[in-house]
Every structure is written in structure tokens, then in C-alpha cells.
Specification:
Blueprint lengths: L3 E2 L2 H9 L5 E6 L4 H17 L4 E6 L5 H5 L7 E6 L2 E7 L4 H13 L12
Parallel strand pairs: 1-3, 2-3
Antiparallel strand pairs: 2-4, 4-5
Amino acid sequence: MSTKKVTDDSFEQDVIGSSKPVLVDFWAEWCGPCRMIAPALEEISQELGEKVTVVKLNIDENPDAPSRYGVRGIPTMILFKDGKPAATKVGAAPKTQIQGWLEQSLLADRSSPAGSGAL
């Protein structure tokens, strides 16, 4: 599964209304670091496609969502779970770091289930 393009118009349906977690990559054509991490995000999308949807939002063409979620610098990646921001990573990083952060963020709410009795 490759990354999908989202817009301000499709954000509500594609991200907020998604039944599974969505990683949004806020980027721009002129951003070198954004272009640098794009292949890593494509690979992560293919490897983790059953657990998370990876989407890209061009901030120049779609200014509303970045403004709504406080994106000040790019690349910024925000993981949405149940329609809400759950984790944020700002700046370029190697694939291993991005994937490690994403996998840890995906598991974050499962590591301490309610009612588990663990202290």
C-alpha cells in the first residue's frame, strides 16, 4: 500500500473518520528534508499498511489542516488515532527512526490497558 494524498477537503473523511490509525506527513514541494523522507514513508506504508494508513498533505495547497494542528515546521508527521492527534514527530530522520517512533506510538495505548491490574 503506497502513501495517499489528502487535502483540506478530504481530511475529515480520510484522517479523522478513519477506522484505523493514520500517519499524516505535512510536507511541501520545496522542502528538501520532506523529499528526503518520502521514500522511507513509502516503504513504511507498504510494510505497516495493515496497521496504519500513511498519507501526505501538501501544506502550500492545503493550509487549513496544518494551521488547525499547529504545524510550524516541515516535515511534521502526526499520528491520528480515533480521529485525534496521538503523537507528533518534527524533522527528517532515517527510516529506522521514523518506523521505530511510529511502531512505539501505535502500541502506546495498548501497553497499559485499562483494568489490567498492573501498577
